[in-house]
Structures are given as structure tokens and as C-alpha cells.
Q: What sequence folds into this?
């Protein structure tokens, strides 16, 4: 893309074309891994102390304090997976980031880590708990989200539970309603070298979808565009989706980490 093409770029259409930043690409995944492991912020993964707090709660709430089979979808570098494993659980983590999966396998050799898109991987069945944490569910369209819930249902049926942590609607709305912005970076998740980072944001009220676009201009003037799309839900909407896909015993869990920007739903089969 050049400046003329950028100037003529139309507004985005939700879920049309690339809707995710390509974290599965090798160099992207390496840069993102650094963010996952950085304990100074919670931008990619939560800090380990908060993860331990959430896993303690889920271990007691859904597994009754006894080791079970746990499926961690969108596991990243296996921080949640490994925390369940240290409590004696037999764990499987799935993620499409090669750097994260390589790291997880090295740090937690007793768990099974699968490199692949959680929408396409054969998940298996008989799990006691399947988790999808930190708003990952919001990165899929409603249609994909329903299909993913059906896959999670089949993975824990009969008698298992899922934990689904979503970003709050108001957080996604605020992010996608922001003004265009720019900054100069020596490096970032988008590039390992100096670049100009531009961004614009679009909120679609009828669909409750936010589209955030990032334009990266390198020192040769080449422009790359990346799109991050998020589907917002109010808690009652997610409860209805869970009910429609066959889940029962649905409850909103108490906030364990003091993060008002997310909420956690637990449901059984």
C-alpha cells in the first residue's frame, strides 16, 4: 500500500476480509511472545499472579479441587495451562502462534500443546473443563462464536464445564470509538525496526462490532495494514448463546482479579 491508496481507503466492513492481526505468522508470533511474558503489564497475557488467582478459583469451582482433564483454547505460551498442570491436571493447550507453542512445550513438557486454529483443530472429548480466557471469544464473529461454543460443548460432554471470559461491551465500544492517532516506535509487535504507527477506529452500533485498523509505515515508506475486529456482547446475550448451544448451570463468576473490563461465565453440560 502507498499513500495514494491509503488516502482512498474506504471505511471497513465488519468481518469482511482479514479481521485478525496475523499472530500466527512466525515473526509476529515471536514479537507477541515477548509481550505475553512481560510481567510489567497485562496487555497480551495477564501477569502470573493474576493467572494463579483465576486458576485457583476455577480449580475449586469447576473441578472441586481435584485434578481433571483441562482444555485451554487460545492458550498462548501456556500460562493458564501450566498453572492447571501444577495442580495435577492433565492438560491440552491449543494456539495458532508457533513461537508461543514452542515456548509452552519447553516450559511445560507434561502437557499436550497443539499448534493450530481453535476453529479447525479436532478437540476431542471427555474434558472436565474447557477454558477460553481473556476476551479471545470476542475476536470471532457471532457465527464463528456459536460454532466454537458447540465444539467446546462436545469437548466437555457429558458432565464437564466451560469457563468463558469476555471483554465488556463498554470497553470494546470505547476502544473502537477513539479518534485516529499516531506514534513513532523503535519497534513494536508490528515491526522489529523503526516505524510510524497510525491507527483508526470504527464502532458499528447495529452489529455491536468494533474494528480497529493499524497502519505501519517503515523507513522506506512502505505501508502495511492490520485489522483487529471484536464482537461485543452483554452478559445476558452470552447466557442466551450458551443456553441455545445446550449448556446448563450457567453463572457469572465473582471477579477474582479486580478487572472491570472483563467478565467470566461458567457453564456446564
A:
Amino acid at each position: 500500500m502507498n499513500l495514494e491508496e491509503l488516502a482512498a481507503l474506504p471505511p471497513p466492513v465488519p468481518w469482511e476480509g482479514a479481521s485478525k492481526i496475523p499472530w500466527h505468522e512466525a515473526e509476529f508470533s515471536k514479537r507477541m511472545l515477548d509481550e505475553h511474558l512481560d510481567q510489567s503489564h497485562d496487555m497480551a497475557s495477564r501477569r502470573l499472579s493474576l493467572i494463579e488467582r483465576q486458576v485457583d478459583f476455577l480449580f475449586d469451582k469447576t473441578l472441586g479441587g481435584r485434578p481433571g482433564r483441562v482444555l485451554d483454547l487460545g492458550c498462548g505460551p501456556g500460562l493458564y495451562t501450566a498453572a492447571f498442570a501444577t495442580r495435577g491436571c492433565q492438560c491440552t493447550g491449543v494456539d495458532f502462534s508457533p513461537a508461543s507453542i514452542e515456548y509452552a512445550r519447553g516450559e511445560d513438557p507434561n502437557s499436550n500443546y497443539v499448534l493450530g486454529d481453535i476453529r479447525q483443530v479436532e478437540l476431542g472429548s471427555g474434558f472436565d473443563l474447557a477454558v477460553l480466557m481473556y476476551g479471545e471469544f470476542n475476536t470471532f464473529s457471532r457465527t464463528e462464536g456459536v460454532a466454537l461454543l458447540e465444539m467446546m460443548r462436545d469437548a466437555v460432554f457429558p458432565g464437564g464445564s466451560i469457563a468463558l471470559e469476555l471483554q465488556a461491551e463498554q470497553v470494546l465500544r470505547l476502544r473502537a470509538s477513539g479518534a485516529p492517532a499516531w506514534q513513532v516506535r523503535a519497534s513494536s509487535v508490528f515491526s522489529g525496526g523503526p516505524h510510524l504507527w497510525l491507527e483508526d477506529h470504527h464502532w458499528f452500533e447495529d452489529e455491536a462490532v468494533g474494528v480497529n485498523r493499524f497502519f505501519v509505515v517503515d523507513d522506506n515508506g512502505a505501508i502495511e495494514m492490520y485489522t483487529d475486529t471484536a464482537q461485543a456482547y452483554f452478559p445476558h446475550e452470552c447466557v442466551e448463546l450458551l443456553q441455545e448451544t445446550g449448556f446448563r448451570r450457567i453463572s457469572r463468576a465473582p471477579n477474582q482479579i479486580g478487572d472491570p473490563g472483563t467478565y467470566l461465565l461458567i457453564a456446564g453440560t
